[in-house]
Amino acid sequence: MKSLKGIFCVTATLLGCTAFAQGDLLITPKRILFDGRNAKEEINIVNTGKDTATYSISFLQYRMQEDGSFQQISSPDSGQLFADPYLRIYPRKVTLAPREAQVVSLQCRRTADMQPGEYRSHLYFRSEKNIQPLGQETAVQDPGKLKIELIPIFGISIPILIQSGNVHAIATLSSAKLETAADQSQFVTTTLTRQGNMGLYGDISIEFIPDTGTAEEVAKLSNVGVYTTVKKRILQIKLKKKLDLRNNPGVLKVKFVSRTDHTDTAQAEREIILNAATASH
Length: 281
What we know:
This protein is mainly β and 281 residues long. The protein contains one helix and 19 strands.
């Protein structure tokens, strides 16, 4: 039997949840920011699988698109700055036994000629499987059949950001609208727009304020990013429950708050007036 082996990659690009596991690899944290107050950070990785695994660590470059997806690139877009020339990582390859943990050190080395703005690259953790060399085949029962084997190679990439000089961003929410899906669930479509020389990163919450009754949070979307390769993100946020607007109209307040320790926290709000006419759409 002839054997053909193929390798395909499964890569998860993460914006910044606290911890995430993909392909038996757990990484904490999911986003690193060098804002001038820190020059060194540590990343904790854990092999959550049942077998010993080896991971290689490198940098990848991505552009974000308006729907939040990422596209791998090799040259920066207009206004985009890569961070990896100013970063050092150690080690670049780790082998972990089941449940074993490892600390990866990440150091930022700034230079005097760095222009103001936000630099971004993605740190890529790639699983290295023990793949049998081509041409080497094990004993088979039926030499007349063709065997095709696909071997998944898992990878996770996390954003690494460097802020240099005077950086700022202004957030705006626009085009907010309540819509109803085919399954009668409700969701808000809105656009988060960014202005400035740095990206936005934060949380969106949606509060329902009824004409009568108590206000309540009906949706929340965490870890929303708008990086410097786009001016806006088009978002669809599903509500936790269906609102009865015929009997209890009110207002939906959509709010974005950036995650930052700086005093100039970017915020934006938008309101949607809801009534019986809204419920019929």
